[in-house]
From TrEMBL:
Topological type in the membrane: Multi-pass membrane protein
All residue ranges annotated as the ABC transporter domain in the record: 374-608
Keyword line: ATP-binding, Cell inner membrane, Cell membrane, Membrane, Nucleotide-binding, Transmembrane, Transmembrane helix, Transport
Source organism per UniProt: Spinactinospora alkalitolerans
Pfam families: ABC_membrane, ABC_tran
InterPro entries: AAA+_ATPase (IPR003593), ABC1_TM_dom (IPR011527), ABC1_TM_sf (IPR036640), ABC_transporter-like_ATP-bd (IPR003439), ABC_transporter-like_CS (IPR017871), P-loop_NTPase (IPR027417), Type_1_exporter (IPR039421)
Full protein name: Putative ABC transport system ATP-binding protein
Coiled coil: none
Biased composition (Low complexity): 14-26
One cellular component (GO) term of this entry: plasma membrane
Length: 614
């Protein structure tokens, strides 16, 4: 693919541990505690709390409205059905019912408005969180991304965010309503009878303590669920991507067993968490039944003592229901909240991973246009936690030179070009472009000047034209056609029934391997870089395509500085100079003609090339 060096962040071995800087406002960084996680989550998506005051006002009205019915019942029983005159007062009953009906309608409307506002706020907040998380994943270095399976990474920004969404939309709304309902019910119950209120609270206290204890267990259990889900999605994603290899090696059964293991592990984690959470609701219902029974007994006793009217006792029983439902609801929300906090933690975990290759941004150096010179000064590199794989590289590449990089497998060629394109920073030493330390060059400038064409260019499921203009979306069809002609590929384009509109399929699978290489080369040509870094494809193509590729490569590299990891003898022969890698060092440098005559690594390589093509 000729994508510009736009993933310029790769974790160098010298980097310290990940700290936090996601460009977000200064945040409370702790996610150790549930509150810390919620605070950070809310600060990252301010939409969650925007306009919360008005939403709360509707919530208060909607909640206060709930006490209208119990109060009306009490009034109707005590002052309507049993009026002071001794006869039912139908006028009072009618007025009370009418007022009650109006208030219930207002309450329902406020409840609707509250819901709409909360949904809107949570959806906006989640959209921000998703966008932030996806962008951040793109800012992370290839090395950091590779340390986690792609599926697991995707799960962090999809499934985990969805989990937060479930809580924010269902639980969040209920939490506000339930807390208000609990407070109001308590206040009104106390107004009717403080003794009965005490009875109710005494019944519920064990539940509160029990829930706090369960919170810790549930928190761990749900974090495990989220981790297992990530593993499962990662494993499934990987096997879907690698389906062809799995089939080719007939490892369906073994792969299936691996997937089964992750599915079973997820199931086990879910069952464990659910078993814990299921204990909460029956316990709450038991407590509620005990509270109701205790209120009836104590209420009748208080009534006999003349401290409670029948209407007040009936109203109190209504209020106990009003009290119990948020209590039970709160325990359920609590489960959702644990799950959501676990999800939030994992999303924040992604955001807390520092892009380890920093863009100097506006303060960065702008490279002037024209063929680039490249310098390596005392460059060494070790992958994180690994041995040194490149050491003491001191090289100068003059502007406009075509360099072929050759060497045994594992000798450090790819590492060399990754450092050159700043996919990683050296552990020691400096890489220079036009004399400027690569670390000081602005990404925008680097992306314009330097383009890397990997072995297997990634094609997007779009048309041929769209894939070619990937780096320059504004390029018109005529420009693309000119580029194709200039690279000597007009006959290839003419042979395609739909020309630039040819659909390439997912990952370019509707094209042949050779054609995908051609697309990658034209894409790089259209991007018009000054330094081209190529990893020559190793896949065999038919002779006609091979000729086209060679012709295109020759024209593409003309007048530019180019560094090509060469897997073919012809590429090394055509280069101005050859860099020969051996065990992480540059063992030889020179023209093909000179090197081939000297005994050494290159002569051996050449011999094996000649032998294999004989
Ligand atoms: N991401 C990585 N993490 C750890 N070690 C790595 C990583 N990539 C490469 N290496 C190691 O670095 C060494 C050099 O690898 P490199 O890919 O640069 O070799 P190469 O010459 O390009 O090989 P090939 O021709 O097979 O592509 C090898 O020993 C390899 O195992």
């Amino acid at each position: 693919m000729s994508a510009p060096v736009s993933t310029p962040t790769e974790r160098g071995a010298s980097d310290g541990p990940a700290a936090v800087d996601d460009g977000a406002p200064a945040l409370h960084r702790s996610t150790d505690t549930a509150m810390g996680t919620i605070r950070r989550g809310l600060a990252l998506s301010p939409e969650f709390t925007r306009g919360l005051g008005i939403t709360l006002l509707f919530a208060v009205i909607a909640t206060v409205g709930k006490i209208v019915v119990p109060m009306a019942v009490q009034q109707i029983i005590d002052n309507g059905v049993v009026a002071r005159t001794g006869r039912p007062d139908m006028g009072f009953v009618t007025t009370a019912v009418t007022v009650c009906a109006v208030l219930v309608v207002i309450t329902a409307f406020c409840s609707y408005l509250m819901n709409v506002r909360l949904y809107r706020a949570t959806e906006s907040g989640l959209a921000t969180l998703r966008r932030r998380a996806f962008r951040h994943v793109h800012d992370l270095s290839v090395l950091t991304q590779n340390s986690e399976r792609k599926g697991a990474l995707v799960s962090r920004v999809t499934a985990d965010v969805d989990q937060i969404s479930t809580f924010m939309q269902m639980g969040g709304i209920m939490l506000i309503v339930s807390s208000g309902q609990l407070l109001i019910a308590t206040a009104l119950m106390a107004a009717y009878s403080w003794q009965l209120t005490l009875v109710v609270w005494l019944c519920f206290l064990p539940l509160l303590f029990g829930v706090r204890w369960l919170q810790r267990l549930l928190s761990k259990a749900y974090l495990k669920v989220r981790e297992r889900t990530g593993d499962m999605l990662g494993a499934i994603g990987e096997t879907v991507m690698g389906a062809a290899v799995i089939r080719a090696h007939a490892t369906e059964e073994r792969t299936g067993r691996r997937i089964d293991d992750t599915v079973l592990a997820t199931r086990r984690a879910q069952v464990k968490a659910q078993r814990l959470s299921m204990a909460v609701s029956p316990f709450a219902e038991l407590v509620a039944s005990v509270a109701n029974a205790a209120v009836v007994v104590a209420g009748v006793w208080l009534g006999i003592a003349g401290e409670l009217t029948p209407g007040e006792l009936v109203a109190f029983l209504f209020l106990v229901t009003l009290f119990v439902s948020p209590m039970i609801m709160a325990t359920e929300i609590f489960n959702e909240a644990q799950n959501a906090i676990a999800g939030w933690r994992r999303v924040l975990g992604v955001l807390d991973t520092v892009p380890d290759i920093a863009d100097p941004g506006r303060d960065g150096h702008e490279l002037p246009r024209g063929p680039v010179s490249v310098g390596f000064e005392g460059v060494s590199y070790a992958y994180p936690g690994g041995p040194t794989v490149l050491s003491g590289v001191d090289e100068e590449i003059r502007p406009g030179t075509r360099i072929a990089v050759v060497g045994e497998t594992g000798s450090g060629k790819t590492t060399f070009v990754k450092l050159l394109t700043r996919l990683m920073d050296p552990s020691e030493g400096t890489v220079l472009l036009d004399g400027a330390d690569l670390r000081r060059v602005a990404f925008s400038s680097l992306r314009r000047r330097v383009v890397m064409v990997p072995q297997e260019g990634f094609l997007f499921d779009s048309s041929l034209g769209d894939n070619i203009r990937f780096a320059r979306p504004e390029a018109a069809d005529a420009e693309l056609e000119d580029a194709i002609t200039e690279l000597g590929l007009a006959d290839w384009l003419d042979g395609l029934a739909h020309g630039l509109d040819t659909p390439v399929g997912q990952r370019g699978e509707s094209l042949s391997a050779g054609e995908r290489q051609l697309v990658a080369l034209v894409r790089a040509y259209v991007a018009d870089p000054d330094l081209l870094v190529l990893d020559e494809a190793t896949s065999a193509v038919d002779p006609a395509t091979e000729v086209r590729i060679q012709r295109a490569l020759d024209r593409l590299t003309r007048g530019r500085t180019s560094v090509t990891i060469a897997h073919r003898l012809s590429t090394a022969e055509a280069a101005d100079e050859v860099l020969v890698f051996d065990d992480g060092r540059i063992a030889q440098r020179g023209t093909h003609a000179d090197l081939v005559r000297l005994p050494g690594v290159y002569a051996d390589l050449h011999a094996s090339w000649v032998h294999s093509s004989a």
